[in-house]
Amino acid sequence: SRTHHYDFFIRETNVTRLCHEKAVLAVNGQFPGPTINARKGDVVVVNVYNQGHKNITIHWHGVDQPRNPWFDGPEYITQCPIAPGSNFTYRIIFSGEEGTLWWHAHSDFDRATVHGAIVVHPKLGSSFPYPKPHKEIPVILGEWWNVDVEKLLEETKRTGGDFNISDANTINGQPGDLFPCSKDGTFRVPVERGKTYLLRVINAGLSNDMFFAVAGHTLTVVGTDGYYLKPFTTGHVMISSGQTMDLLLHAINVSANRYYMAARTFQTNTELTVNNTTATAILEYTDAPPLTAGSPEPPVLPAVDDLAAATAYTAALRSLATVDVPTHVDEHMVVTISVNVLPCKPSNGDTSSCEGPINGTRFAASLNNVSFVASPTGVDILDAYYHSIHGVYTSDFPNRPPVAFNFTEPEPATELWYTDRGRRVKVVEYGAVVEVVFQDTAILGAEPHPMHLHGFSFYVVGRGFGNFDEGKDPATYNLVDPPYQNTVSVPTGGWAAIRFRATNPGVWFMHCHFDRHTVWGMDTVFIVKNGKTPDAQMLPRPPTMPKC
Ligand code: C2O
Ligand code: CU
């Protein structure tokens, strides 16, 4: 294995989109940021210089980082932030991942513009489990706001009310031809007829799941979240916030020279205001006769709320090989996912204008009715655990079985809308097999939630609609070839069951990948204890960790 070095200079960079110029945080002046390239089993060292005006951290999304929580990145969970004017060197250890992952800021809403692709190739001497593509193309789906994301965060925390939706979805940072002042920047993919291209698609969006398609072409899905899948061919893809999809595109079309690839929001909660704009890029045959006037063909995308299309796509994901799913479960938990209300608490710096749906409340979100509050104590959770500092968190997640009610009934009683503030974590023994069943609820509207776990990939053994039934649903689990992911889309008004073996000691964040839900508290932490042997224990604390 090799070690690769990167320098990330984070600073404000002026960017113009939708006819507005604004300063955004970006890495090395690039938006999206640079791609990190590695091979399976390599180590990547990234020296991050914070030349911006605010605290920041970087997370390596989907990299398990065995025994190495120190460099995982979430602010106040595994580290104190990198202060303006200082730097911090991350050491990223790749183990089982092979495919597409990504990196992003893990502080406030900074990841809106601070993100980029991670491409993990097979080890030297081994190859993809499919014919080698002619070219590989990172395709990062994202969102653009004309307002400053710091403003957006403030608003999200203060009112928690109407989320300020993005002004455009983007492909590689560009809204594309359908938006004003955007034509010149539209991302273009030159292709040659007869060749095959690997699209490494990443959904970096802050608040949107997305459908993606290419006009005139089908896509062969070969991987997700850094692991291979049984190939299947589809007209469109649904990709949750945080997920990646590896797609083969065969450039074999002859009817036109140019085709749009397009991305649009998937959101089932029709009571929410959604960004239903379409981002486009252009697939351009370079060996075709000179382009004639006229627009490229648009692709057919499912409607914004097409739950059936999203469900069918997600259900088709299967691991390439038969996998070793643990059959005995040591820790089983059902965790409800809700959007909630909290009483306003101005004394807490929660200077709410209290625009929640019930007087004197603001919006919140929860896992099992606890709204996780970030550590205000100046100690991150990893340090608190490592140095046995008390009072930073409590080890009682989930602190009770989920409040029993019909989770998916349209109008749950208003008493059920309330949640508690806490910093409750789950501590598990090294090697324990953990099964989490995420149960969406209809409190303040059912919607899909992309649940993401740090430190582990997990098998998605089951998904279903309605209330999870302990008696019946486990019999439907796929224990043969379930997909291995780090982010699972919990279906609207339904549930998803995941399983993983806790063989990575450390402190690992778990949260909804919609940033508004993350800051509203739809989060918890898994602490995995050290095992007995030295190779089952956390690496020693690096002396370079930033101070709070
Ligand atoms: Cu992609 Cu905790 O994040
Ligand atoms: Cu969510």
Structural topology:
Blueprint: E1 3-17, E2 20-27, E3 36-39, E4 43-50, E5 58-61, E6 87-93, E7 99-105, E8 115-121, E9 135-144, H1 149-158, E10 168-171, E11 188-191, E12 196-203, E13 209-214, E14 219-224, E15 227-234, E16 237-239, E17 244-250, E18 258-266, E19 278-285, H2 307-315, E20 331-343, E21 361-367, E22 370-372, H3 381-386, E23 420-422, E24 425-428, E25 433-440, E26 449-453, E27 458-465, E28 484-485, E29 487-490, E30 494-501, E31 506-512, H4 515-520, E32 523-528
Bound molecules: CU-O-CU linkage and copper (II) ion (CU).
Domain Plastocyanin-like: 11-123, 136-287, 397-531
Catalytic activity: 4 hydroquinone + O2 = 4 benzosemiquinone + 2 H2O
Organism: Digitaria exilis
Looking at CATH, which topology of the largest domain would you report? Answer: Immunoglobulin-like
Q: Please state roughly what percent of the residues sit in beta strands, choosing from under 5%, 5-15%, 15-25%, 25-35%, 35-45% or over 45%.
A: 35-45%
Estimated helix fraction: under 10%
User: What's the CATH H-level superfamily name of the largest domain?
Assistant: Cupredoxins -  blue copper proteins
Number of strands: 32
Average predicted confidence as pLDDT: 93
